[in-house]
Amino acid sequence: MPYERLDADAVLVTVERLEGRIAARFPERGLGQVAARLRVVATDVRDATRASDPLRVLRLACWTLIGLLALLIVLIVVLAAAELLRQSSQVPALPALEWLRGLETTVNDAVFLGFAILFLWLLPTRVERHRVLRVLHRMRSLAHVIDMHQLTKDPERFNASFRPTRRSVEVNLSATDMASYLDYCSELLSLVGKTAALYAEHTTDPAVLATIADIEDLTTGMSRKIWQKVALLPVDDGPAASRRRLA
User: Fold this and answer.
1) Residue 235 above 80 pLDDT?
2) CA pair distance 90, 88, nearest whole angstrom
3) Which DSSP letter does residue 245 get?
4) How far apart are CA 98 and CA 29, in angstroms?
5) Do 71 and 224 contact (CB within 8 A), yes or no?
6) In angstroms, rounded to a whole number, what is the distance separating the alpha carbons of residues 36 and 27?
7) Checking CA distances to 80, which of 118, 159, 165, 214 falls within 20 to 30 Å?
8) CA 23 from chain center: how many Å?
9) Domain spans of the chain?
10) Keyword set for this entry (predicted)?
11) pLDDT tens digits, one per residue of 55-77
12) Residue 54 burial (CB < 10 Å; 0-12/13-18/19+)?
């Protein structure tokens, strides 16, 4: 169903389009480089989610070892049972203490091999989780970088009562340009969340899903803060300003 799942190609195209818009409007600003970095991350995510099974070789190796270890457990149990039956048939009969020692050895070996099987069973999941979380941490860092770009874009400087100090940051943006700049920051944050959500389409890992939810909450909160700034900007209803806001 094309309208029930996120399309990685569509997300990437949207990121590329936004990168072009930022480069055309603010060619000298670092926000374009942030958009370019997001494009690289979105490309990596698309390629990773499109791959049929990047850990196929590891999974096959683990399953093969699990099968061998399971056979080894069966062999140990069978040999131990045969040995105990052989010794119990001897005269005099095997003391109970010797039975317990043999049983303890067999159980210890089976438990040790069982832990090895469990480790191999979980290994591909852990490797995949580590790989995905590493990319998601990059997205979280990228969201904070975007937030840093909007940090100094203060709408209060357009108030008639605003008096800059010698420590005030020079923004060199009109109210309309600042609105566009903040809008681009909000769009970038939204696309960071959408790029992270692409992984949710391909995993049920609780740790990964929790990290994706955290990133979406983070970007939503940052975007809300940006739109609070936009609401405080003076409104220019001229046709030129309207055209620029639509770009």
Assistant:
1) no
2) 5
3) H
4) 80
5) no
6) 12
7) 118
8) 27
9) 8-53+123-160+170-246
10) Membrane, Transmembrane, Transmembrane helix
11) 788 889 989 999 999 999 888 88
12) middle
Of 84-88, 106-110, 161-165, 192-196, give the lowest mean pLDDT range.
Answer: 84-88
Angle CA(15)–CA(17)–CA(19) in degrees, nearest 5? 70
Q: Going by C-beta distance under 8 Å and a sequence separation of 6 or more, which residues neighbour residue 118?
A: none
Distance, CA of 218 to CA of 143 (rounded, Å): 8
Residue with the bigger pLDDT between 149 and 95: it is 149
Structure tokens at 220: 């939503």
Burial (CB count within 10 angstroms: exposed 0-12, middle 13-18, buried 19+), residue 219: buried
Q: Which two tokens stand for residue 40?
A: 């690289």
> How many residues does the structure list for the chain?
247
How far apart (Å, rounded) are the C-alpha atoms in residues 243 and 171?
22
Q: Which of 51-60, 132-141, 191-200 has the lowest mean pLDDT?
A: 51-60
Token digits of residue 179: 């609105």
* CB within 8 Å of 6: residues ≥ 6 apart: 194, 197, 198, 201
List of E strands, 2-147: none
Neighbours of 157 (CB within 10 A): 17
Is-contact 76 108, C-beta < 8 A?
Answer: no
What does R_g of the chain's alpha carbons equal in angstroms?
A: 30
